[in-house]
Write a structure and sequence with these properties.
The complex is a heterodimer of chains A (115) and B (117). By secondary structure, chain A is mainly beta. Helix content of chain A is 0%, strand content 56%. In chain B, strands 2, 4, 5, 6, 9, 10 and 11 form a seven-stranded mixed β-sheet that branches. A four-stranded antiparallel β-sheet of chain B has the order 1-3-8-7, with no helix packed on it. Classes of the chains: A mainly beta (115), B mainly beta (117). At the A-B interface, strand 5, strand 9 and strand 10 of A face strand 5 and strand 10 of B.
Chain lengths: 115, 117
Amino acid sequence: QKEVEQNSGPLSVPEGAIASLNCTYSDRGSQSFFWYRQYSGKSPELIMSIYSNGDKEDGRFTAQLNKASQYVSLLIRDSQPSDSATYLCAVNMISFSGSARQLTFGSGTQLTVLP
Amino acid sequence: DGGITQSPKYLFRKEGQNVTLSCEQNLNHDAMYWYRQDPGQGLRLIYYSQIVNDFQKGDIAEGYSVSREKKESFPLTVTSAQKNPTAFYLCASSIGGTSGASYNEQVFGPGTRLTVL
């Protein structure tokens, strides 16, 4: 079974700090990686995508990918209370049936930013 | 504005009933997906469709059925064979295809919360 693993949290950080969210995946052939933010009771919103090794920055968000270690992370700088949400890692992996690639989601990390 | 609409927002089903969840998109995306989310868990793929008149089972297709007669629409039927249907159902779409970096970037609709009475 192909898997995406995340620490479920909760992760609490003070306002203004850096929040670090981590994700590991089992399919060495994966090429596409995504971070979604999900507020309580709402649907996921795509906030970052990354396809090559290294860092990708977008505003206060930085995604980091290390394919050799099968590890992807999300850093949130200058964390705000409005960043409090569950963050889902998604990886494009071979499907359960082995017939196609599909997004496999981790169970999410709950982040709380304390004022 | 382009986006995905799902209806209804809340749905209540009695035991033994079939119910259909609507999903419509005006993003001109080829691929559409249905996921199920249970409390404290990630998303699990039910069905997906890469083109009109074609769809594939995901990891948890038992007790569900879909159709894709139009590019814009991908309704999901939860049948009475689904033993534990209470969950948050999410429809998503992506540009589709099998190449290109962004083909699998999925955007989600607002979801339908289904409860069995």
